[in-house]
Amino acid sequence: MSEHVVHPVPEEWAKNALIDAETYAEKYRRSVEDPDGFWREEAQRIDWIKPFTKVNESSFDEDDFRVRWFEDGTLNLSANCLDRHLPEKAQDVAIIWEPDDPNTPNRIITYSQLHADTCRFANALKANGVKKGDRVTIYLPMVPEAAVAMLACARIGAVHSIVFAGFSPEALCGRIQDCQSDIVLTADEGLRGGKKVPLKANVDAALEKVPVRRVIVLHHTGADVPMVEGRDVWWYDEIEEQNAQCEPEEMGAEDPLFILYTSGSTGKPKGVLHTTGGYAVWTAMTHEYTFDYRPNQVYWCAADIGWVTGHSYVVYGPLANGAITLMFEGVPNYPDFSRFWQVVDKYQVEIFYAAPTALRALMREGDEWVKKTCRKSLRLLGSVGEPINPEAWEWYHKVVGDGRCPIVDTWWQTETGGHMITPLPGATDLKPGSASMPFFGVQPAIVDPASGEVLEGACEGALIITDSWPGQMRTVYGDHERFFQTYFSQYPGSYFTGDGCRRDEDGYYWITGRIDDVINVSGHRMGTAEIESALVEHDKVAEAAVVGMPHDIKGQGIYAYVTTTAGTEDTEELRQDLIQWVRREIGPIATPDVLQFAPSLPKTRSGKIMRRILRKIAANDTGNLGDTSTLADPDVVEHLLANRPG
Ligand code: PRX
Question: What's the cofactor (predicted)?
Answer without folding.
Answer: Mg(2+)
